[in-house]
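Reposting from the mailing list since nobody answered there.

I have sequence plus structure tokens for a pair of proteins and want to know whether others read the tokens the same way I do. The first protein:
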Amino acid sequence: MPRQISYRWRLRELMAARGMFTVAELMPHLAERGITLSSSQVHRLVSGTPERLSLPVLATLCDILDCTPADLIATSAQNLPARRAVGEEAPIDLSARRPKRVRLTPES
């Protein structure tokens, strides 16, 4: 059965829990650990959900926030309904194919 995987980026929540509310507060912590990102890159990291993230940046964020990658990235998975294979017939609903009976009434 196919599964749909989703995730939620929780950087902003973890920053707030540790008293950091702006990008400017996070940037010096990144710099002292050797991660040089522009303020716009850090802003996108904090305000959005990254599609790609290097492991050194992830490890540094975990060190700064004293957390694990699982704390930063909340994942969930759910089963999807099975899809029909190409050429596979769908079950036939005979009631939809059977004609409706006509009721005749005499003319007045």
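The second protein, same order (residues first, tokens after):
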Amino acid sequence: MRILMMIAAGASVLTLGGCEGMSPESRTVAGVAGGAAAGLITAEALGASNEWRLIAALAGAAAGTVVAQNTATENCAYSRGDGTYYTAPCP
């Protein structure tokens, strides 16, 4: 069962690549939904408690939003190591 859930989590992350040609708002919504689903499925696969499942879903939604916005702008944020960040084209 855990292997099936891990496969589902991986598939939900890969679907973000299908966001080409979407509006920025639609891309963000898809990122939030896909990230939250991936976080929840991963927490379920690891046998987490209900509180950790909620935290994993919220963290996944945040990560999905960042990925969706970075793919929309084609810029990524990079840390300088001193607590500041800069943006540059994604690799």
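Reply #1 (J.P.):
I read it the same way you do. The chain has a mean pLDDT of 79.
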